[in-house]
Specification:
The protein is built from seven helices and two strands. A two-stranded antiparallel sheet has the order 1-2.
């Protein structure tokens, strides 16, 4: 799903029923156990890049290989979807600006740093929704590499999600 438009992984969706089915599938996924597993693993990957300085960081450092950057993009989308699958009336408590994106990303990753999958739902909903800083950090990392093509689209999606506080896609 692409923010503010009817695109699914690079394909323009022209039939409303297909678009509605995709949104329904996303809602079902976010509510299930697979989403908890995905967000737990996604935050592990993102911590390797944005927080940890251990030996594992050498394995995925977002340093410009397409697969590294694509992993960061997918991990960021997983975090966003999981957060926006919470109650729609939950407000985030982050005061977002480009200058404090790294701090907000760190706060999000710390909040989501739980020991087991079962603890993921124990993270307050407002923390789960506070993904703007993380999305911005991933967007900047992708943009710094200037690889074009597929990653330009990824950068555009992240930009829209950040600028519209994730409200661009209603699911």
């Amino acid at each position: 799903m692409t923010a503010s438009e009817s695109w699914l992984f690079g394909t323009k969706v022209t039939e409303e029923t297909v678009w509605q089915q995709a949104k329904s599938t996303l809602r079902d996924w976010v509510a299930g156990d697979a989403a908890k597993k995905a967000v737990w693993h996604a935050t592990q990957v993102l911590r390797l890049v944005f927080q940890d300085q251990g030996p594992q960081q050498q394995q995925l450092d977002g340093s410009g290989y397409l697969h590294d950057l694509w992993c960061l993009y997918i991990a960021a989308l997983v975090c966003w979807a999981f957060g926006y699958g919470t109650a729609v009336d939950v407000e985030t408590r982050d005061e977002f600006s480009a200058e404090n994106a790294e701090m907000l990303a760190t706060n999000y990753l710390r909040a989501m740093d739980v020991p087991t999958l079962g603890c993921v739902l124990g993270v307050p909903e407002w923390s789960r929704r506070s993904t703007r800083g993380l999305l911005e950090c991933v967007r900047v990392r992708i943009g710094e590499m200037d690889m074009g093509g597929l990653l330009n689209g990824a950068e555009d999606v992240l930009f829209r999600l950040v600028e519209e506080n994730g409200e661009a896609v209603k699911f």
